[in-house]
Design a protein that fits this description.
Blueprint lengths: L3 E2 L5 E6 L3 H12 L4 E5 L5 H4 L11 H4 L16 H15 L4 E2 L3 E7 L2 E8 L2 E12 L6 E2 L12 E2 L12 E5 L3 H12 L3 E6 L14 H9 L4 E4 L1 E6 L3 E7 L4 E7 L2 E4 L3 E2 L3 H6 L3 E2 L4 E2 L13 E3 L19 H12 L25
Parallel strand pairs: 1-7, 2-3, 2-7, 3-4, 7-20, 9-16, 10-11, 10-16, 11-12
Antiparallel strand pairs: 5-6, 6-7, 8-17, 13-14, 14-15, 18-19
Helix pairs in contact: 1-8
Length: 360
């Protein structure tokens, strides 16, 4: 395979991924004049770019601020995805962070003096060299498919974009966590006839946010939203969805008419880069093995940052707000110093609300 050499001298650090934590690490390195390269397969903050319009973060603004730069909005409230993308763009502009967007890293090869990174840029394969590599690639790379007939029909999607699309249409939402609940409520208020199928008999009060669940239960009790508890879709057609009643003793099926179907079944991480670099992946979630004190993986000189450290999260434990400390740990491991600024709140508040994963 023919590669075009990048023309860059070997960098001290290469960052892969330009979400909030990747950008926060880039800011810390630049402020300390540490030579680095930064790659992003799409655009900065890509995951937020496909959020539904006007979706608010569950985290408060101070918990998702990065690089010591405040996030302000006119409502003094939780930021929307659009506001946060504007915030990330402003940080890139203010600090003049150089990100090679739309240049995905396809492979990472360890060698004695560092790493070779192979990228695809505008149909050209390129090769770069770095002493250290940080993978801040996130974990929502593809939908968690059900692999049932009809899942790829044009009126079926794993992504919710705008409630207006479903005005006066029959919409079946599959799922029972925050995204599914919020989607059902927003679409019902936009004039959609909403039904929900959830594999459990009840919604989990430990998972669904407390400002969403009472509202949903009220609409179900009032008959505004139809609820099919303990069910799972087994087939989707152009006119209806076949739900199987999950019972231990019998096979019962329900046909639910639907003009549109939204499958809120979660997302999975693509482990290809981890595997190509020789990182050990642990358990069903394929979580990368790393030292929780430094975020260095089992491959010397290769670090993991942000939600990428959790693999495919079935129950979310890593968020932006409790990953700021990853930046400090990695920066210290690479430079032997503490970064100038991360986040905007005291370090003690970075402690995660749940038990974090630690490598075996």
């Amino acid at each position: 395979m023919n590669y075009q050499e990048s023309g860059y001298s070997p960098a001290r650090v290469a960052i892969v991924g330009a979400g909030p934590i990747g950008l926060e690490l880039a800011a810390a390195l630049k402020r300390s004049n540490v030579d680095y390269l930064h790659f992003e397969a799409q655009q900065i903050g890509y995951t937020m770019s496909w959020w539904p319009r006007n979706t608010h973060f569950f985290s408060t603004t101070e918990r998702i601020e990065i690089a010591g730069i405040p996030l302000q909005n006119i409502y003094q409230d939780r930021a929307t995805g659009e506001e946060y993308l504007a915030y990330l763009r402003s940080i890139v502009e203010q600090l003049d962070l150089q990100v090679r967007t739309y240049e995905p890293v396809c492979r990472i090869q360890p060698r004695e003096d560092g790493f070779v990174l192979e990228t695809q840029s505008q149909s050209k394969l390129r090769r770069y060299f770095a002493q250290k590599v940080v993978l801040a690639i996130g974990e929502m790379h593809a939908p968690n498919r059900l692999n049932i007939p009809g899942e790829d029909l044009p009126h079926v999607s794993h992504y919710f974009d705008d409630p207006h699309k479903y005005f006066r249409k029959r919409l079946l939402v599959v799922g029972g966590r925050n995204s599914a609940v919020e989607t059902a409520l927003r679409c019902w208020r936009a004039g959609s006839r909403v039904s929900i199928s959830y594999r459990r008999d009840t919604f989990d009060i430990e998972i669904v946010k407390n400002h969403l669940l009472p509202d949903l239960l009220t609409q179900i009790e009032s008959g505004n939203i139809a609820f099919y508890p303990g069910t799972a879709p087994v087939e989707i057609t152009s006119e209806y969805v076949v739900l199987r009643k999950i019972t231990p003793s019998s096979e019962e099926y329900i046909q639910v008419p639907a003009d549109f179907v939204l499958l809120h079944t979660g997302f999975i991480q693509d482990p290809t880069l981890f595997q190509s670099a020789g990182i050990h992946l642990i358990g069903e979630q394929l979580r990368p093995e790393y030292n929780p004190e430094t975020m260095e993986t089992n491959v010397p000189g290769l670090f993991v940052a942000g939600t990428a450290a959790a693999g495919t999260q079935k129950r979310y434990k890593l968020f932006i707000e409790n990953c700021h400390s990853h930046v400090a740990k990695i920066f210290c491991a690479i430079t032997g110093e503490q970064p100038e600024r991360i986040g905007t709140i005291p370090e003690r508040q970075y402690e995660p609300p749940f038990e974090t994963f630690q490598a075996n």
